[in-house]
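Researcher: Please predict.
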Amino acid sequence: MFVFVCVGCGARLTTPLSQVALPAHAHQKYGNGIQLPVLMESGTFAVDPEPWGPPWRTWEEIEPDEAAARGIYAPVYALSDGAPGAIVIAPGDTRGTVLIPEKGGGYCCGLDGADGLNMACAACGLPVASRIDDCSLWQAVWLAPNAVRRRPVDDADAAPLCWAELMAEGKGTPPFEPIATWGSRLGSDHRWSWSPQWEAAGGQALAHLLAASEGRPVTVPGGLIAEVFQRALDALLPAGPPARRAVLAGPGRPVPDSDADILLVPAHPQTGESWTPAGPAASAYPVPLPFGMWLWLAFPEPYLPVPASGGMPDGVLRDDPPAPRAPHLFRADAGAFQRTLVRLPAVRSPWLREILESLTQHMRARLF
């Protein structure tokens, strides 16, 4: 466990926190006027290894060698010249900070951090963080890496949970959820939709699936996995060459077939490391999925999980209706797809670069 303190005066700025992996949806912008919840679970923090936030430079101002050195292999609109290593936490986990009124960029429905650091240390006034809570953005506080210092609060060296412990304690992320909107004349409105977390993770995974395809068709297992990926794969990849086969793999699952070309595997929620199989399947291309999404795909929860009050026997489920489904087909998050694909060396291939350059058309076709 750690707390973060101000580098200027040493004042404590957070509650005790434990480190987890950066969520796949950390930089997601979702819809228009959408009321997104808090990004991080209370009591946790994550570190973004890449620069993020102002100042920004457009692609035309960046030399190709510099971009490649930063792990960017295809054009993007702009790159951040901010300091790498920003720390993201839940807003409720901050302590001893105040807002800086003149740094209030955003204000469609809240703050977006466009004007730079908008929170200061209450003790010495040093700008230390950006509060983000505008519409269509995940609510978070991003601590500036050069303005805070990490300080351990105990001597315990807690090891990350092993995969068996995660399987016993972990929770799946449902694919559908109610989405709240702001700005209605009648107040807040709600509708059921695909989870924004699934759409961001789907965009990230789709980029990996295309890179792993080597320009050939890809097949995925039926059911919910096919709902998420197969339509886009069929539209973006050619139909002619022999297909590459993707399978779901991970702890508690059967050993992957030796002829599987691609493995959809879980990423550890604390370390971010992907699960790795043993044996011949280790040579397959691993496509990481957030653990909560992977767990739901691998071991889907029944729609009727709550026992009725009274003396219902074990295993008997309530006769409640299933949760509503989204009224439209799955669409991967275009921003997450682009951010991932430009960071894969395979994007240098002409056919994959063409997909990237045609992203706007694919969005109009509702693949994204």
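Model: The radius of gyration is 22 Å.
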